[in-house]
Design goal:
By secondary structure, the protein is mainly α. It contains eleven helices and no strands.
Length: 269
Amino acid sequence: MTFISLSFADVALSAVLLVVNAGLSLALSLGLARQMAIAATRMVVQLLLMGLVLKVLFELSSPLLTSLTALVMVLFAGREVMARQKRRLAGWWAYGIGTTAMLFAGTMVTVFALTTQIRPEPWFEPRVALPLMGMILGNTMTGVSLGIDRLLTGAVDARVSIEARLALGHDRTEAMGGVVREALRTGLVPTINSMSAVGLVFIPGMMTGQILAGVAPMEAVKYQLLVMFLIAGGTAFGVLGAVLAGSRRLSDARHRLRLDRLLPGAAED
């Protein structure tokens, strides 16, 4: 099978479906048409810019530029995590906890894969490293976002219960244990659901792309399994780090619940 090249006209034709969706939103008064338009515009601009940047990076094959690009990806992911929070920690923590957790998780898992399983030459080959980092980071971002949101919301909702346990002599780890466990479950469920349904309910994007490009199905399966395992590991590390750090920030060394560290009004129901 030969590679199927798409023209920009082909891509524009597929965008007609989004226009139909926006029309349905207007007809049904869903209020989503503007959001669809903004999201689609952002997607097109971001992907076109990424395509241009990747072209240069692939030609230069510089470890410094590859690392800087990965860092920029993490910084933007941190902003997305913060923007999705119904309640937020005050100050740097609202952005820093999720970003730091994704930085360590994404970097660790990506370097692990590059140096032990995929082994490109050189090991930092941007053609391999950046797409791999992007897939891991995108899924980790979703898990971290859900986990932190569930933690902060759960701490506010369970305020009376947590403070009662603290008053009875429980330490902060015991008092907040239920909220932390629920936040971890929430952050990990999307990845678990994806692993359960992949292959039976849907064919993942990476595997689909490889098959369309002419790669043998079993070879595409092996790469997809590798990526799914890496995504599961990165998401677990990221969610665990972010939720545990967030729970620490919501308490102090004197084992008090510190909802005052949320933005003003965030601790109110």
